[in-house]
């Protein structure tokens, strides 16, 4: 998982660099130069920290999206095949089917089928217990995305405060409140806040999308778990 995260981080950073290079090569110099100039004007030390939060946040988000897409299975088709196997009295074939199917839903159903000979209560208990484990795996890494969402604007505000202090230091050194000195210093200071807020907005969109994907998977998992108990009872698996 760590290797995948590192590769995704490098991929995102490379993609951004190639995108900017391509824009410049195609003549879209204005956008490229503007981003470059604003990045430098906003104090590259703090802007770089905010950029790092963006890259890492996107890496975690992409990793979660890829994992959740892999975990999304055709539950209706899976339940139909399990029903057919149980109708033929072949519990082992149903277990093998769940074992060979990727995703948390199939894993939860497998745990339920493993406890088929112990009665419906044992099946429901196994499903609930293992369902909690799968929930934790689905939500893995979300805490880091939340951290980057909160950290990006705070780093921007920190850069702004330090920039304002530097602006007042210039005013004190000059001994006169010049509009050009004040306006220039404030503009540079506020750029870090803008960049931090933009990064937080981007990551928040990814975060909400991931949460919606997890909710969808959990709902399907719960429906499949209830259906499994009904299918097992219908086919007289509990003896």
Structural topology:
Elements: H1 2-25, H2 29-41, H3 44-71, H4 75-87, H5 91-100, H6 104-114, H7 120-138, H8 142-174, H9 179-234
Helix pairs in contact: 1-2, 1-3, 3-8, 3-9, 4-5, 4-9, 5-6, 6-7, 6-9, 7-9, 8-9
Give your account of this protein's structure:
This protein is mostly helical and 239 residues long. The chain has 2 domains: 2-71 and 141-203, no CATH class; 75-138 and 221-234, no CATH class. Helices cover 87% and strands 0% of the residues. The chain has 9 helices and no strands. It has helices at 2-25, 29-41, 44-71, 75-87, 91-100, 104-114, 120-138, 142-174, 179-234. Helix 6 (104-114) runs antiparallel to helix 7 (120-138) and helix 8 (142-174) packs antiparallel against helix 9. The longest helix has 56 residues, at 179-234. The two termini are 42 Å apart. Residues 4-29 have low confidence and may be disordered.
List key phrases describing it:
239 residues; mainly alpha; 0% strand
Q: What share of the residues does DSSP label as strand, in percent?
A: under 5%
H/E element string?
A: HHHHHHHHH
How far apart are the first and last residues' alpha carbons, in Å? 42 Å
Structural class of the secondary elements?
Answer: mainly alpha
Concise description?
This protein has 9 helices and no strands.
